[in-house]
Amino acid sequence: MISNRLRHFLVDAADKVVLLTKDQPTQKELDDHGSYVSLLTSASTAIPALASIARTLNEETSLAEVRRVLTDLK
Q: What is the pLDDT of residue 74?
Protein backbone atom coordinates (compact mmCIF):
# COMPACT_ATOMS: atom_id res chain seq x y z
CA MET A 1 0.00 0.00 0.00
CA ILE A 2 1.25 3.47 -0.88
CA SER A 3 0.95 5.92 1.97
CA ASN A 4 -1.12 9.05 1.51
CA ARG A 5 2.05 11.11 1.95
CA LEU A 6 3.79 9.52 -1.04
CA ARG A 7 0.78 9.69 -3.33
CA HIS A 8 0.72 13.47 -3.08
CA PHE A 9 4.41 14.35 -2.99
CA LEU A 10 4.18 16.17 -6.33
CA VAL A 11 2.12 18.92 -4.70
CA ASP A 12 4.48 19.70 -1.86
CA ALA A 13 5.26 23.12 -0.37
CA ALA A 14 7.72 25.52 -2.01
CA ASP A 15 10.01 25.43 1.01
CA LYS A 16 10.57 21.73 0.37
CA VAL A 17 10.55 21.75 -3.42
CA VAL A 18 12.89 24.69 -4.08
CA LEU A 19 14.12 25.52 -0.56
CA LEU A 20 12.19 28.80 -0.63
CA THR A 21 12.81 29.85 2.96
CA LYS A 22 13.08 33.21 4.71
CA ASP A 23 16.46 32.36 6.24
CA GLN A 24 19.09 29.78 5.43
CA PRO A 25 17.42 26.36 5.15
CA THR A 26 17.64 24.17 8.22
CA GLN A 27 19.11 20.68 8.05
CA LYS A 28 15.57 19.27 8.15
CA GLU A 29 14.56 21.44 5.17
CA LEU A 30 17.67 20.32 3.28
CA ASP A 31 16.88 16.69 4.10
CA ASP A 32 13.24 17.13 3.02
CA HIS A 33 14.39 18.71 -0.25
CA GLY A 34 16.76 15.81 -0.85
CA SER A 35 13.95 13.34 -0.19
CA TYR A 36 11.68 15.21 -2.60
CA VAL A 37 14.30 15.13 -5.36
CA SER A 38 14.86 11.44 -4.67
CA LEU A 39 11.13 10.74 -5.01
CA LEU A 40 11.05 12.67 -8.29
CA THR A 41 14.00 10.66 -9.57
CA SER A 42 12.27 7.41 -8.63
CA ALA A 43 9.01 8.54 -10.23
CA SER A 44 10.87 9.39 -13.43
CA THR A 45 10.99 5.68 -14.29
CA ALA A 46 7.23 5.96 -14.90
CA ILE A 47 7.16 9.59 -16.07
CA PRO A 48 10.48 10.38 -17.80
CA ALA A 49 9.91 14.17 -17.83
CA LEU A 50 10.33 14.18 -14.04
CA ALA A 51 14.04 13.33 -14.44
CA SER A 52 14.72 16.76 -15.93
CA ILE A 53 12.87 18.45 -13.08
CA ALA A 54 14.81 16.43 -10.52
CA ARG A 55 18.11 17.40 -12.15
CA THR A 56 17.11 21.08 -12.11
CA LEU A 57 16.15 20.92 -8.43
CA ASN A 58 19.44 19.20 -7.65
CA GLU A 59 21.57 21.87 -9.37
CA GLU A 60 22.22 24.87 -7.12
CA THR A 61 22.49 27.52 -9.87
CA SER A 62 19.16 26.50 -11.41
CA LEU A 63 17.55 26.19 -8.00
CA ALA A 64 18.70 29.70 -7.06
CA GLU A 65 17.19 31.06 -10.29
CA VAL A 66 13.85 29.35 -9.58
CA ARG A 67 13.85 30.85 -6.06
CA ARG A 68 14.67 34.30 -7.48
CA VAL A 69 11.79 34.15 -9.97
CA LEU A 70 9.33 32.93 -7.34
CA THR A 71 10.42 35.65 -4.92
CA ASP A 72 10.01 38.30 -7.64
CA LEU A 73 6.48 37.05 -8.33
CA LYS A 74 5.35 37.50 -4.71
A: 80
